[in-house]
Amino acid sequence: MRYLPKSPADREEMLAEIGVASIDDLFSSIPAEYQLKRDLAVPRQHGESEILDRFRAFSENNAAGYSSFLGAGVYRHYRPVIIDSLVQRGEFLTSYTPYQPEIAQGTLQAMFEFQTMICELTGMEIANASMYDGSTGAAEAVMMAVRVTGRDGAVVARTVHPEYREVLTTYAQHQEIPVTEVGYTANGRVDLAALDAAITSDTACVLIQSPNFFGTIEDVTAIAEIAHKKGALVIVSIAEAVSLGIVKPPVEADIVSLEAQSLGVAVGYGGPYCGVIACKEKFLRQMPGRLIGETKDVNGKRGFVLTLSTREQHIRREKATSNICTNQALVALMTTIFLTVYGKQGMKELAEQNLAKAHYAQTTLGAGAKVLFDGAPRFHEFVLDLPKSAEATNTALLGEKIIGGLPLQKWYPELGPNASLWCATELTTRKQIDAAAAALTGKKG
């Protein structure tokens, strides 16, 4: 990106147009304690060998050799090496928005195949070419439901990922969408009686997550029956896409918001992620983001194009369904490759491995703690009520090179300080589970 310098006269003219006297006045709304009053502490220039040494030193601070039982929306799964080999090809790595289909057929076809696979996984009829992540996807799905129904309220289960709910709150307050939350029962599923009571004639949609934040699989059929009876749409958020290898797709839903990170995307420091919205075809015109379609060229050959892009980049703002003006094409390509490598049978076997590992972990770790929400089917996450606080337990486990579960008190204070969310995937070994169980009970081998 080019650097375009501004002269002092340019700056004065710009400030005068804005109506402030100085740069400091422009940033006066920022609290003083957050304003940097000194020069940046930028180190001197480094030679290539010095840079390599510097980063090797940084790498020694990473948690190498640790076992991890964290999940909560970010999941460790094996990534076939072919993924990076293909996505790092220049044709994919450097491509931009495929405005000219005649020179972007490879990118367009990859997105089309991605959409097709997402539909097969979720049981929906159409899917977009991806969104930012699962949280923005869920919020966009709620706004989509508001447009479809002409109603303005949303009922959201407290078992939806807390951070997804926080993102939805940010969207909803500026869209003037009232959000009502409903609780859960002793088995970790949404409270159906409370849900029924919360839905009114102004409710556009019900948002649930399955498997939910506690790892429990919701009764989508019963929830859909309650919502549809009152004219509300059902949105199912799925934070763990691998679950669809064995869990029945939420075909009763009207809209599915999926986070595809676990399908071939590495666990990074906060990203990247890949959100998707899939839905019934009758809602096509209200779908945010891009849709890639199949067509034929003048010679009758198969080709691909941007069929629908109700985005501000392409149409007038007042007709746009979303102000998200991009998609996660490269990350979606990782997902496409992952699903192609595994195939239907491979996805089923992968999900079965996760289910088995989690069952063993729940049984083994449960010997030294109480398992909460144990009365409903689950995938690969479970909640433990530990003998000591979750924070203190995690501190002790770190000494054994074990990263324990996620403390839940921040989002679910009613569960107390000892509640912790644990996860086991196919990458979690029996040895690691046994070591964590021994550390919890104090019976080290």
From TrEMBL:
The glycine cleavage system is composed of four proteins: P, T, L and H. In this organism, the P 'protein' is a heterodimer of two subunits. One of its GO terms (biological process) is nucleoside metabolic process. The glycine cleavage system catalyzes the degradation of glycine. The P protein binds the alpha-amino group of glycine through its pyridoxal phosphate cofactor; CO(2) is released and the remaining methylamine moiety is then transferred to the lipoamide cofactor of the H protein. This is Probable glycine dehydrogenase (decarboxylating) subunit 1. The keyword Disulfide bond does not apply. Residues 1-435 form the Glycine cleavage system P-protein N-terminal domain. Pfam families: GDC-P. InterPro entries: GcvPA, GDC-P_N, GDC_P, PyrdxlP-dep_Trfase, PyrdxlP-dep_Trfase_major, PyrdxlP-dep_Trfase_small. Belongs to the GcvP family. N-terminal subunit subfamily. One of its GO terms (molecular function) is glycine dehydrogenase (decarboxylating) activity. Transmembrane segments: none annotated. It is an enzyme of class 1 (oxidoreductase). It catalyses: N(6)-[(R)-lipoyl]-L-lysyl-[glycine-cleavage complex H protein] + glycine + H(+) = N(6)-[(R)-S(8)-aminomethyldihydrolipoyl]-L-lysyl-[glycine-cleavage complex H protein] + CO2. Keywords: Oxidoreductase. Its EC number is 1.4.4.2. The keyword Disulfide bond does not apply.
